[in-house]
Amino acid sequence: MTEHSGELSGQYMKTQSQSPNLNISYIDKLLERASSLKRKNPSQSLEFSTKAFIHSKDTDYSKGIGLAYLYSGIAKCNLQDFENSLMDLFNALDVFENISDTPNNIATLNAIGMTYNASGQYKNAIDFYTQSVSEAKKADQKNETYAAILNNLGIAYQNIKEYSKALDNYVLSLKAYSNINDEQGEAIALSNIGIIHSLQNNNLNAVSYFESALEKKLKTGADSQSLLNTYLNIANAAIKNNDAEKAKVNFKKALEFESEIEDSQKKYSIYDSLGKLEALAENYDGALNYYKKALELIKESDNPEEFINTKQNLSVSYELKGDYKNALKNWVQYQEAWKKFITQKYSNEIKDLRENINVHKEDVKSALENQFAERISKLNDNIKSLESKNESLQTEIQGLIGILEKKVKKPLIDILGFSQILRSEESQFTKPEIKNLFSETEQQAKQTSEYVSNIIDYKQIETGKKKAQIGPVNISLLISSVINSHKSTANEKNIVILLKSDPETIFINSDRAILLQVFDNLISNSLNNSPPNKEIFIKLLDKGESVRCEIKDNGSGYTKSEINSILNKNVISETTSINELNLVMVNKLSKLLNYEFWCDSDPGSGTSFVLEFNNNIS
Predict the structure, then answer these.
(1) What are the tens digits of pLDDT across the range 114-128?
(2) Which fold has domain 161-247?
């Protein structure tokens, strides 16, 4: 047997034995205490290991000597005293080899691998882990230690970025833990497999393994820190997998352990990520809430770049929400923070350059100042843009108020006046007169409803909120139904509306509701422009690759400049007539339904409205 000195390696407590006849059971109790404290309190573990070592020497208890070396080595590793740790562990290895203690020999090889891994010597760690696995297989000891060694071997391969070998060993570790029904160990192996898949961008697999690990951890009552890390692993993998909803759910689950998160940077990262996810879902109130919480966790002086990025995200969310006042306020704060950060960053660079490159100092200074000025200029442009948007919004609001005053309020007052006259003086009117009053009231209400509907649709298109639901539409039948809806107006003016469809039934891919509005606007426009006793011709033709519809009236017509002015109109005001608004809407909706729209017209000769659809169904 190899002789060992009477002290453990390094400058640690030495204890003289008071009684050389102490029994083995007392030494084993010392070793149990040393083992239980080697990670929780490594300093205390060393004290018990030292006492156990001295008493084991006095009683010539070889196994006790070996275990004292082993636990002392592990404790010193946890205290990052790697050199003395390895000395103790190699001494332990000598002892266990001499007394043929295979289980502890395997455990010591694993401990040496762990020490090399902790000190960054990964290839040495792999060598000793591999020896440990080999010895365990020879001894057929595929127990918890064997499963843990396989997991450790995976970690070492992961540290040198040999992910395929790491994954192989994690899978073997999972199988070993499963064979002995160790669900806590399975959870560890599943988490590590998930990490490898995440590193290899197999994010769907990563999410699956992290969720399996979470299930095991919840079942076995894992501590809150372990659950927190697993929720974060799932959330981050879900983001990479473009599963925003799952990421959001798991970040929120992680926040349930907020009191356990001591690292404010980690908290900031969670809130910042949730802010981005809510913004992505267009829930700007939620995004603003999380960005504000993120900003509470960092100081501009300590984390200037994170502060600037989050401030920018906050400003953008206010802008997208339409809260331009707060957007402007936060853009200004963002500008000030960026200016301060850039000034500090580049002032240090300017100072170094002045000291080291005196020849070029003026050129360097000028270049940095230009870069800084360019950035400030862009920020000023951004602020001006926001101010302009705010002014445009105010102008638009005033315009809408004018429209409501002239185009809606007045007709409603007229309708109310007609109603009061009919109620109070009904006997003074003949039946034809009453019928005429009802007809006028109905026409006023219809035009007002049509105008308001067009205004609402116009705004929805402008803001991108109006979406098309595309599907097969019988355009021949749809136009017939629109003609029928205008029959009473046509009859009053003795106008005949003729439809010719070739073939009789034609289908196109479009949005039926929006298409109804298009033809309603055009036929209404033709009726409004046509004098009594005229005809309106509607021709529908399937040309093979496209379907063309032409609506020809004999009305007053338009000049080319009038047509161009109407179709290029970007602002709706109280001066916009119902006929103009009808055509503006048809032109706007052409982009939504992907059709071409144009007008052929001469004053006094009527107008032809032409629509060309490139999506017919044969």
Answers:
(1) 999 999 999 999 999
(2) 1.25.40
- Write out pLDDT tens, residues 142-174: 788 899 999 999 999 999 999 999 999 999 999
User: What CATH number was assigned to the domain covering residues 471-617?
Assistant: 3.30.565.10
This model's pTM is above 0.70: no
Over residues 326-343, the pLDDT tens digits come to 888 888 888 888 888 888
Residue 393 near residue 324 (C-beta atoms within 8 A): yes
pLDDT above 50 (res 409): no
Alpha helices in 548-577 (DSSP H): 560-567
- Angle in degrees, CA 378, 381, 384, rounded to 5: 155
- For residue 37 the two structure tokens come to 């404290």
531 bridge partner residues: none
* 503 burial level (CB within 10 Å; 0-12, 13-18, 19+): exposed
pLDDT digits 0-9 by tens, 462-494:
666 677 788 899 999 999 999 998 898 899 899
Contact yes or no for 86/67 (Cβ under 8 A): no
HEC secondary structure over 326-373: HHHHHHHHHHHHHHHHHHHHHHHHHHHHHHHCHHHHHHHHHHHHHHHH
- Cβ burial, residue 421 (10 Å; 0-12/13-18/19+): middle
What whole-number percentage of the chain has pLDDT above 90? 41
- HEC string of 186-245 equals HHHHHHHHHHHHHHCCCHHHHHHHHHHHHHHHHHHCCCHHHHHHHHHHHHHHHHHCCCHH
Sequence ranges of the chain with CATH classification 1.25.40.10: 1-141, 161-247
Q: What homologous superfamily does CATH list for 1-141?
A: Tetratricopeptide repeat domain (1.25.40.10)
Alpha helices in 81-202 (DSSP H): 82-98, 102-118, 122-138, 144-159, 163-179, 183-199
